[in-house]
Design a protein that fits this description.
heterodimer, A: 101 residues, mainly alpha, 0% strand, elongated, B: 187 residues, 2 domains
């Protein structure tokens, strides 16, 4: 196993997540895309730690930060979805374009 | 040898199920495809000798996706996938952007001379992480704790149906709370 394989996997996951986050209309599906992108960060950070600086724990700490990011992202995302759905019956991004410039 | 095979199985499985998330008709299936993608990706993390973080990702993602399925069924049309559906906008543009990002990242991955390390790997990676979080990286742990606390407060505020501003007015100076039904707190 070499570092490039892991980074390529991370790049593929990141691109798939980016496609989902850009193309999906439903807020919950957009959050799935964001989670895939955060997952790519986890794979890339662990591989970089393993191959580039295994004696320092910094890479593992980055993975912990990415994990917390995923949890926070999902909790806040669902809270915002609940709030906007309760107020305006909206669950699609196209119906919530108030801030569009 | 076996590590190589396991890596490629996990890598291909992770990307294929990741793509399936945005291809299947049913929201519930999409959620479980995402769960499979996370478990495969955690498999590659386990191959890197990171037992604790790999297991943590698997356990956390199982919980998270089961919660997500509930929200999916709450907010989505067509939760069971009984009819084909598309819920996308600007698909060609998104595909082009995602493809360009992947091409740029892949070019970087193969062109950059990545550093290699001859340093010895720690015997117990979990102990190394724990000692870092409770020692030199304590600030990270504290900031993460604060973020999680702020998240808890923010989610409750956002998801609550009626708060004190609804009951006592914008200046919180109403003598009696304005409630739609009789009874309740302070009445």
């Amino acid at each position: 196993m070499i570092l490039q394989q892991f980074l390529l996997l991370a790049a593929a996951l990141f691109s798939v997540g980016l496609y989902g986050a850009l193309s999906q209309q439903s807020i919950v599906m957009i959050m799935m895309g964001l989670e895939l992108m955060a997952n790519a960060v986890i794979v890339a950070a662990s591989a970089y730690w393993y191959f580039a600086s295994p004696s320092r724990p910094d890479g593992q700490v980055v993975v912990v930060v990415a994990l917390v990011l995923m949890a926070v992202d999902m909790a806040i995302g669902f809270a915002v979805t609940t709030a906007i759905f309760r107020r305006r019956d909206v669950d699609m991004t196209d119906s919530a374009a108030d801030l569009k410039g | 040898m076996w590590a190589h095979i396991a890596f490629w199985v996990c890598a291909v499985g992770s990307v294929v199920t990741g793509v399936a998330v945005f291809r299947v008709d049913s929201m519930a299936r999409a959620t479980f495809a995402l769960l499979a993608s996370f478990v495969f990706a955690a498999g590659t993390v386990l191959l890197l000798n990171l037992a604790y973080l790999g297991v943590l990702v698997i356990l956390m993602m199982i919980m998270e996706m089961v919660v997500m399925v509930v929200f999916m069924i709450m907010y989505m049309m067509n939760p069971a996938g009984l009819m084909p559906m598309t819920m996308v906008h600007n698909q060609k543009g998104s595909l082009a952007i995602a493809g360009a990002v992947f091409a740029a990242l892949a070019a970087g991955i193969f062109l950059i001379p990545w550093p290699t390390s001859g340093e010895p790997r720690p015997e117990d990676t979990t102990r190394a992480l724990g000692e870092a979080l409770m020692g030199s990286k304590m600030l990270v742990m504290m900031v993460l704790g604060l973020c999680l606390f702020a998240t808890m407060v923010a989610t409750v505020v956002l998801a609550a149906h009626r708060g004190r501003y609804d009951r006592y007015g914008d200046r919180l100076d109403a003598k009696r709370p304005h409630d739609p039904v009789r009874g309740g707190l302070n009445r």
